[in-house]
Amino acid sequence: MAVIAMTLFLRTEMHKNSTDDGNIYTGALFFTVVMIMFNGMAELAMAIAKLPVFYKQRDLLFYPAWAYALPTWVLKIPITFVEVGVWVFITYYVIGFDPNVER
């Protein structure tokens, strides 16, 4: 998807002269946010598959709901940072958010 984004918004320098340039900039930012958001949708099937275990433990009063959901949420944070880092590393210069590669 990063390669598709790079070819869709290909420019090594983002112009800031008109509203059309602003629309392209906003579109690239929106596409990035949507891609990051939908990366978590792949884990939805796994979460639904774990629901019978959750309901059984809840009905037998083993663990509260937060004790079941909190570790999964905390473990997703570093994975999300890695995904965002890879996305930004691949697309930031090519899309043209910053014309300087060193940044």
TrEMBL record:
Q: What is this protein called?
A: ABC-2 type transporter transmembrane domain-containing protein
**Listed InterPro entries:** ABC2_TM (IPR013525)
Q: Which PANTHER family match?
A: PLEIOTROPIC DRUG RESISTANCE PROTEIN 1, PLEIOTROPIC DRUG RESISTANCE PROTEIN 1-LIKE ISOFORM X1
Domain ABC-2 type transporter transmembrane, residue spans: 1-103
Q: Which UniProt keywords apply?
A: Membrane, Transmembrane, Transmembrane helix
Q: Which domain of life is it from?
A: Eukaryota
Topological category with respect to the lipid bilayer: Multi-pass membrane protein
Originating species: Vitis vinifera
Subcellular localization(s) per the UniProt record: Membrane
Keyword Phosphoprotein attached: no
Q: Where are the transmembrane segments?
A: 24-49, 70-95
